[in-house]
Amino acid sequence: MTERQKDRPWLMRTYAGHSTAEASNALYRRNLAKGQTGLSVAFDLPTQTGYDPDHILARGEVGRVGVPVSHLGDMRRLFQDIPLEQMNTSMTINATAMWLLALYQVVAEEQGVDITTLQGTTQNDIVKEYLSRGTHVFPPGPSLRLTTDMITYTVAHIPKWNPINICSYHLQEAGATPVQEVAYAMSTAIAVLDAVRASGQVPEEKFGDVVARISFFVNAGVRFIEEMCKMRAFGRIWEQVTRERYGVTNPKQRRFRYGVQVNSLGLTEAQPENNVQRIVLEMLAVTLSKDARARAVQLPAWNEALGLPRPWDQQWSLRIQQVLAHESDLLEYEDIFAGSHVVEGKVDALVEASLEEMDRIEQMGGAMAAVESGYLKSQLVSSHAERRARIEAGDEKIVGVNVFEATEPSPLTADLDTAIMTVDPAVEERVVTAVRDWRTTRQESSDRQGGGDPFHFPTVQQTLDRLKEVAAGTGNLMEATLECARAGVTTGEWSGALREVFGEFRAPTGVSGAPLAVTAEAGTPLALVRDKVEKTAADLGTGKLRFLVGKPGLDGHSNGAEQIAVRARDAGFEVVYQGIRLTPEQIVDAALAEDVHAVGLSILSGSHAQLVPDVLTRLRAAGANDIPVIAGGIIPSSDAEDLRAAGVAAVFTPKDFGITEIIGRIVDEIRTANHLDPLEVPA
Fold first, then answer.
1. What is the pLDDT of residue 453?
2. Domain annotation covers residue 666
3. Domain that holds residue 375
4. pLDDT value, residue 682
5. Where would I find the B12-binding domain in this sequence (predicted)?
6. Quick check: is 478 in a domain?
7. How many domains does the chain have?
8. What does the pLDDT average to over 409-423?
9. Are strands 449-450 and 453-454 parallel, antiparallel or unpaired?
10. Do 217 and 352 lie in a common domain?
């Protein structure tokens, strides 16, 4: 080998945050001491969706899947004793991205940092929220404006910051094929760049600076050769788009820059030790090829299908990266796939198909129009349904799930209660109390003191009024948002003010437009379940069985709920599915109004312990004891036992991959609840 300088490793991150700002700060400092080279902040769902911890929809969600940040005080504690001028901080935040960046900037200013030196990323991709993750708040138009305003502000004032991470990660988890992942992400980038150019906020000669700050956040699945080729296709298309559509001549500004979180929802609850090798293969997809290597990588933990990983689990994932970067010879060579006809052929095919899909979206009016029409969502739901059907048929093999299921007892999961981290339920009460204290103790007067001399500061209400005034006009919203942050406004107050002006948005579910994914010919499992559905409907004297699929709380991971809804529809149910973000009261009201025969609740965020029993209690209070409640999601075994003891008819977790079988079980529970004899349907 010709001697050459060893390449610098990618940024190594761990996606982390939980409970409180103080607890998360301690975790960050421990991770940095272990050799992590960048921070990746996970915010809880109330923070992501613009609610304070004491809002009704935040119940059960505070501090569960990330850290609650309700105001400037929380952000100060989150980064206490962490020098922000030395950090590269990624913040996974979208609808409220402008607000969290404002808080981060103000904390940096308080630390004495020159904000032009700040480095990091705000995800800020609202399109994939409408399609897959579900933490959107505002309609597409205002959301795109918030994104545009952030981009133009950072290019002018925080030039090293990546104001948007076009995020195809969740698209893959929602069912996207590699072609769909590339095409939808690129179409989103085009929509954003077109909006920035049309805003007139950036001079034409500076537009290359905008393109240079666009980054991407992608998923890497276990088909690592295909995933590596996908990354090369991404880079080739980005080069073409930025050169031809936007006229960027500087090669450095056209560089495709991306970070990776390898696939999490593809991890299995069954034989979870297999997840370690899955994670390694997925990481290789985005590190082996120098010409398509990620700039930053964060890996999930082996036990994420079981619950919240512990710090030790996250350390294991960090060590996987470190072993590859520092013990192997990976970084000593040029691109090892250069000249491969196999790789080039696969990349060519991906590029051609992706450009065709991008053209189709362009003909519809672009990514935003394709979101509002429901086209993108229905395509994802259909792709996901097809993949689930292949898994159930055994055509797509998953070790430990539908093949090689025999296993020795695992010492890793011998004690499931200690194999994951749990968040103390008392944390929520403390955080709620703290935000209420903040509202009563923050300085509201206009004569606050600064540096010993009197200064005029706007009050909380004045800053909120100013925010609404700017929102109702056409000005950039970032300065007004910064004033809100400095005044002590809360996350819920900032979002609430914009909700008053912009309104809210409920994204299309994609369920009604999804085609049949599993055949129902005579003798097939689906045909047998359809027969059970029809016989049970006849026994109950109703035309059709009615099944409500509900998403209580703020969990926006709707993939599982959508697949259950589609399969129940195909099995002959009349399905009631209103999408995400509902209170238990709304779900029960809908169940009673639609006179349903069963209620299915899907929760992946950990709030099942509070929200599912609430639905049960409300149904009983309404006298609807004959409506069985079924729960599904990432539910630890001890919690599942508690739910069944509380009256839940059945609990399904990721190990229950047979959706047709689940629908059959739901029919059985309907019969049991209505005192009907079991049906003997041949297997």
1. 44
2. yes
3. 168-316+339-408
4. 45
5. 544-673
6. no
7. 2
8. 87
9. antiparallel
10. yes
CA dist., res. 340 & res. 363, Å (int): 35
Query: How many CB atoms within 10 Å of residue 570?
Result: 23
Please answer whether residues 38 and 29 qualify as being in contact, where contact means their C-beta atoms are separated by less than 8 angstroms. Answer: no
Give the model confidence (pLDDT) of 19-77 as tens digits: 999 999 999 999 999 999 999 999 999 999 999 999 999 999 999 999 999 999 999 99
In eight-state DSSP terms, residue 20 is -
Enumerate residues 6+ apart whose C-beta is below 8 A from 417.
636, 638
- Helix residue ranges per DSSP H, 134-205: 140-157, 169-173, 178-199
CB atoms within 10 A of CB 375: 17
Give the bridge partners for 629, in sequence order: 599
Residue 4 has pLDDT above 80, yes or no: no
Tokens representing residue 237 in the block: 């298309």
Active site residues: 15, 169-170, 551, 555, 557
CATH number of the domain at 231, please. Answer: 3.20.20.240
3-state secondary structure of 675: coil
162 forms beta bridges with: 121
- Calculated CA dihedral for residues 652, 658, 661, 665, nearest 10 degrees: 0
**Looking at the structure, do residues 178 and 312 belong to the same domain, yes or no?**
yes
Say if residue 376 is in the same domain as residue 235.
Answer: yes
Question: Given a cut of 90, is residue 10 above it in pLDDT?
Answer: yes
What was the pLDDT predicted at 425?
A: 86
Among the candidates 393, 408, 423, a domain finishes at 408
Per-residue HEC secondary structure of 229-276 comes to HHHHHHHHHHHHHHHHCCCCCCCCCCCCCEEEECCCCCCCCCCCCHHH
Among 152-166, 302-316, 448-462, 579-593, the minimum mean pLDDT is found in 448-462
- Express each pLDDT in 106-155 by its tens digit: 999 999 999 999 999 999 999 999 998 899 999 999 999 999 999 999 99
pLDDT of residue 452: 40
Q: Could you tell me if 258 and 387 lie in one domain?
A: yes
- Tell me what pLDDT residue 444 has: 60
Q: Which of 387, 408, 429 represents a domain boundary (last residue)?
A: 408
269-283, 309-323, 339-353, 455-469: least confident range: 455-469
Q: Which of 611, 646, 633 is nearest to 59 (CA)?
A: 611
Please tell me whether the overall predicted TM-score, pTM, comes out greater than 0.90 for this model. yes
**Alpha-carbon torsion, ordered 624, 628, 634, 636, to 10 deg:** 100
Query: Cα dihedral sign for 598, 599, 602, 607?
Result: negative
**403 in the same domain as 540:** no
209 Cβ neighbours under 8 A, 6+ residues apart? 155, 159, 202, 253
Residue 165 has pLDDT above 70, yes or no: yes
Residue 347 lies in a domain: yes
Contact between 287 and 294 (Cβ < 8 Å): yes
